[in-house]
Automatic annotation (TrEMBL):
InterPro entries: Alpha/beta_knot_MTases, RlmH-like, tRNA_m1G_MTases_N. Its main location: cytoplasm. Its EC number is 2.1.1.177. It catalyses: pseudouridine(1915) in 23S rRNA + S-adenosyl-L-methionine = N(3)-methylpseudouridine(1915) in 23S rRNA + S-adenosyl-L-homocysteine + H(+). It comes from Elizabethkingia argenteiflava. The keyword Metal-binding does not apply. This is Ribosomal RNA large subunit methyltransferase H. S-adenosyl-L-methionine binds at residues 73, 105, 124-129.
C-alpha cells in the first residue's frame, strides 16, 4: 500500500521541515509514504473563498488517481485515538488498498467536489492548528500507527 499526504501550500518553517523529515524517515518502507506539497493558487487574494476552493480542487484532482482511497483531514471529520487510527490503517492494508491519500486543504477547507470524491473525513483535534503543524502531527501519527501495528511497546503499556 502507498500512503500519500497531499497538502495545499508549502512548508516554510525550517524547524517543522526538520521534524517532518525526521518522522518521514522513520516510517516503514512498505508504507511507501510520500508528502506532496502543491503550490498555492496564483492570485488567490483576488478570489472569493468559494472560487479559491474550486481552484484548489482542480490542483488536488490533478494528483489523484481514480482508484485512490481519499481521506480528508477536516475539522468536521471523525476523531480517532492513536490505537483506533492504527486499526484503521490496518483495515485499509487488509482490504488491499492500493493507494491511501490524505488531503490537507487550504485556509477555507475543501470544495464540494472534493467532499464528494472523498471516502472519509478525519479530524486530528477539536483545536485549530496551522496547516504546517498538521502535516507534522499527521506524519507522526502515521509513524505511531506503524509502531503499534508492528507490536512495539506503546506509550505506557
Amino acid at each position: 500500500m502507498r500512503i500519500s499526504l497531499i497538502c495545499m501550500g508549502k512548508t516554510d518553517d525550517v524547524e517543522i521541515k526538520k521534524l517532518i523529515t525526521y518522522y518521514t524517515h522513520r516510517l516503514p518502507k512498505h508504507f511507501n509514504f510520500e508528502l506532496v506539497e502543491i503550490s498555492d493558487v496564483k492570485n488567490a487574494k483576488n478570489l472569493s473563498p468559494s472560487q479559491l476552493k474550486k481552484e484548489e480542487a482542480k490542483l488536488f484532482l490533478h494528483h489523484l488517481e481514480t482508484t485512490d482511497t481519499l481521506v480528508l483531514l477536516d475539522e468536521k471529520g471523525k476523531q480517532f485515538s492513536s490505537r483506533e487510527f492504527s486499526s484503521k490503517i490496518d483495515h485499509w492494508m487488509n482490504i488491499s488498498t492500493k493507494r491511501l491519500v490524505f488531503l490537507v486543504g487550504g485556509a477555507y477547507g475543501f470544495s464540494e467536489d472534493i467532499y464528494q470524491r472523498a471516502q472519509e473525513k478525519i479530524s486530528l483535534s477539536k483545536m485549530t492548528f496551522t496547516h504546517q503543524m498538521i502535516r507534522l502531527f499527521f506524519i507522526e501519527q502515521i509513524y505511531r500507527a506503524s509502531t503499534i501495528l508492528s507490536g512495539k511497546p506503546y506509550h505506557n503499556d
